[in-house]
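Example 4.3 (complexes with small molecules)
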Amino acid sequence: MHLSIKILIGLILGVIGGLIAGPTAVPWMKVWIAPIGTIFINLIKMVIVPVVLASIVAGVASIGDVKKLGRVGVKIMIFYLATTAFAVAIGLMFGTLMQPGKGLTIPAGAKAASKMAPPLQDVLVNIIPSNPFVAMEKGDMLQIIVFAIFLGIGITMVGAKAKPVEDFFNGLAEVTYKIIDMIMSFAPFGVFALMMPVVAVNGPKVLLPLASVVAAMYIASIVHAVVVYSGTVATLGGMSPVRFFKGIAPAMLVAFSTCSSGATLPVTLKCTQENLGVRKDVSSFCLPLGATVNMDGTAIYCGLAALFVAQAYGIELNAGQYMTIILTGTLASIGAAGVPGAGLIMLTLVLTSVGLPIEGVALIAGIDRVLDMARTTLNITGDAAGCVVVQNSESKS
Ligand code: ASP
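Answer. The structure with aspartic acid bound is encoded below.
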C-alpha cells in the first residue's frame, strides 16, 4: 500500500477515535497516545537542522556558478512573494464575503494569549547569525539558511580545493534523506497519535461558534490551491495539476497533522524529488528557503483573521488599511517560523499595523490548531509549486 494512503488511514482513524473517545478520555490519551505523536515529531525535528544545512549547502554548491544561483534565487523569491501577496488578498476577499466575525459577542476581558511579534528591523538584523553553531543549537532556520548559502557560495568559488567539503555535504544530505525514509515509515502511527487528542479535546461542539471562520479559512485555502497552484504549475511549470497534487499529497498530510512546515520539510523534499521529478539542485535550495519564508496559508490567515477581528469589534476598515494588511500580512508570513502556532503570534503585527485591538487574537486562539492545519498544508504546497515552476524555467534557459 502506498505510504500516503497509510498516512490518510492513520489520520481518519485518529479523527474517528478522537470523536468516539471525547474529552473525558484525554487523561488516558496523554499517557498512551500523545507520547507516540511526540516521538514522531521529535524524530522529524531530529533531522531538520542537518537536512536544511546539508541540503542547502549541497544545493547551492551543485548549482555550480554564482550567476545561476542568483538567477534561481531571484526567480523563486518572485514566485514566493507574488503568491503570498495574492494569498493575503484572497483571505481579505473571503473575510469580506463570508463575514465570519459578524454577530460574535466578544468575551468580556478577552486577553491576548500570544506574545507580540518582534519589530521588523529585528527580524532583518537577526537573519545574520553571529555564531552559526548557536543558530544550529537554537534551530533558527533563517540563520542556518544564510550560513548554508555562504558555505555553498564559498565552496563554488574555491573550486577544486573545496571538493572534499562539497562531497561531505553531499554525503550528509544523502544520509539525512535515508533517515527520513526510516522516519516516514512510522508516519501513519505518528499522524494517528497527533490527530486523536486534538479531535478529542476540540470536539465538534466547541468548534461550532467559530465554524464560519474555520470554513472561510478552508474554502479560501482550497481556492488558492486550485487557482494559484494549479494555474502556475500547469502554465509556468509544464506539469498537470493532477500529477502535482498527487505527488505532493503525502507531504500535505504530514503538514496537516504536524502543523509545522519545518517538520514537514524532509517529506516535502522527498515528494518533490521523487514524485514530481524536481532536480535536487533546485529543490534542495528552494524548499528549505520556502519552508521558512514562503507561507501562503499563513498569509491568507492574516488577511482573514484581521477582518474577523475587525468585524467582531464592529470596526470599519478603509482602502488604505486593506493595503496595509496586504503588506504586513506578507511580511508577517515571511517572518513566521515554520512551527505550530507561529502565525497566531505574527497576527499581532498585522493587527497593530492597522490599529485593531490585539486582544482580538484571543478570539481565535482557541481554534488556532484547526486553522493552523490548513495554513501549514497550503504553506508547503506553495513551496513545492514554486519548485516545479523554477525547475521548468531553468530547464529551458
Ligand atoms: N504552522 C505554520 C507552519 O509551520 C506557521 C503558522 O503558524 O502559520 O507553516
